[in-house]
Amino acid sequence: MASPVVTRFAPSPTGFLHIGGARTALFNWLYARGRGGKFLLRIEDTDRARSTPEATQAILDGMAWLGLDHDGEAVSQFARAERHREVAHQLLAEGHAYKCFSTQDEIETFRDTARSEGRSTLFRSPWREATPDQHPGDSAYVIRIKAPREGVTVIRDVVQGDITIRNDQLDDMVLLRGDGTPVYMLAVAVDDHDMGVTHVIRGDDHLNNAARQMLIYQAMGWPLPTYAHIPLIHGPDGKKLSKRHGALGVEEYHKMGYPAAGMRNYLARLGWSHGDDEFFSDAQAVEWFDITGIGKSPARLDFKKLENLCGQHIAAVDDAALLHELQGFLAVTGQAPLSDAKVTLMERGMYCLKERAKTFPELLDKAEFIITERPIVPEEKAAAQLDDVSRGILSELTPQLQNVTWTRDGIEALATQFAETHGMKFGKLAGPLRAALAGRSATPSVFDMMLVLGRDESIARLTDAARGGA
C-alpha cells in the first residue's frame, strides 16, 4: 500500500508572498487535497538577518486569502537547527562526511591556481581522507559531505524528465559551517524527511539543489521523495517576472480587488492544463489536478485572462459569500465596512451588480447608487441632465410612482407610457432618472435601481432632484 501523499510549501519570510510562491503553494495544496493527503507549511527562517515576523505574517495572510489551509502547525526551520546538526554529526560518525580545516584563503588560492592552469575550480579538500590523528588541534573546521567522484546522479523529475549530472561536477558540500550552524541544503533535506514529505513540488530554480539534497538522503539511507520542478512565471513579454510587469505580491492582487476563487483558478491554469478547460471550480481543480499536467515551458502572466476568469467567478459565486469577501476587500484597503442596511440592499441588487464586474472596485462602482446617501450631489455630467425642464418632468412623474405596482414590469410600463404621453423616447427620461437616483450618468438600469432601492427611497431621491436639492 502506497504511503499517503504529503506535500509542503516552504517560503522564506524575507518579504511578501510572491505570485510565483502562491502558485507553488496552490499546486502543493491541490495535489495533497485531491489525494486525501497532507499539505504542510514550513517557514524557512534560517536567514536571521532578513527573516521578519511581518514577512511571516504576510505569507500567512496571503495563504489565508487564497484559502490554502495547511495541516498542523507551521514549522520553523530555524527552531530545528539542533536536529540538523545531529544529522551532520551522524554522517560524520558513519564516514559519509568529514572535517575540513581548509581556510577561505586556501580555498581561494586553490581556485586561482586551477583557473590559471585551465582546470576545474571545483574545490577538492585535502582533508577528505584524513584520519583523526592527522587533524590539527583546535583549528576551526567545517563538516563536508563526501560526494561520489565517479558515475552519475540522476534526478527523476515528473515535470522535467530525467536530469543526469556527472558526479565529478559535484563538490563536497558543506553541511555545518565553522560556527556550527547548518547550511540551507542540509536543513531542507532533513526537514523534508522528518516531515514525511513524499512529493517535493517547487520552482525549477531549485532543480540543481535536488542533486545536492539527494546526497544527504542517500547517505542517510532515506527514501527519496518524488520531485516535480515547475517552470517559473514570466511577464507578458516572456522575460522573468519583475516589478516592471506589475504586481508581484499576492497582497497587491488582494488589494486590487480580485476575488480569491478567480485568483486560484487563474494560478492553477498558469503552467498547468486540463484539456481545454479554462474556467473551473475549486472542487474541479482538486479533482483534476495532477503534476503530470504541468508544462515544461515558463507560463506567462496575462492580466486580461485573469480579469476574465475573475468576472466569471464573481458571476457564479453565491451572493452571501461574495458579500463576505467584499467586506474583506474593504477592510484590507482601509475602507469602511458596509452597514447591515447596505448589505441587505446589496444582496437585493446583486443580480444586476455582478454583470460584467471583474473586480470588487468595479462591483462597488456599479453599486454606487446603493452606497451613496441622500442628499445626492450629482457628478458634473449627471448634473447637466437636471435642468429646469427635467426637474419639471420628475415633479410630474414622481407622484405617479406612489401607486404603481412595484415590479420591473409595473415601473417600466408607467415610465414608457409617461414618455409617450410627453412625446419623448424613454432615453430622454433615463438621463434625469439616473442623475436623481445615483448622481451619475453611467449606472445599472434605472428600473433595477428603483427595484433595489425600494419605493420610498426612490421617490425620496426623485423628489429631492425635482426640488433642486439633489
Automatic annotation (TrEMBL):
One of the GO biological process terms: glutamyl-tRNA aminoacylation
One Gene Ontology molecular-function label: zinc ion binding
Compartment annotation: Cytoplasm
Provenance organism: Roseovarius tolerans
Function: Catalyzes the attachment of glutamate to tRNA(Glu) in a two-step reaction: glutamate is first activated by ATP to form Glu-AMP and then transferred to the acceptor end of tRNA(Glu).
GO terms under cellular component: cytosol
Motif 'HIGH' region: where in chain: 11-21
Motif ('KMSKS' region): 240-244
The Glutamyl/glutaminyl-tRNA synthetase class Ib catalytic domain, residue ranges: 5-307
Keyword DNA damage among record annotations: no
Binding, ATP: K243
All residue ranges annotated as the Aminoacyl-tRNA synthetase class I anticodon-binding domain in the record: 343-465
Transmembrane segments: none
EC numbers, comma separated: 6.1.1.17
Family classification: Belongs to the class-I aminoacyl-tRNA synthetase family. Glutamate--tRNA ligase type 1 subfamily.
Gene name tied to this protein: gltX_1
Quaternary organization: Monomer.
UniProt keyword terms in alphabetical order: Aminoacyl-tRNA synthetase, ATP-binding, Cytoplasm, Ligase, Nucleotide-binding, Protein biosynthesis
Protein name: Glutamate--tRNA ligase
Enzyme class: ligase
Catalytic activity reported: tRNA(Glu) + L-glutamate + ATP = L-glutamyl-tRNA(Glu) + AMP + diphosphate
Principal location class: cytoplasm
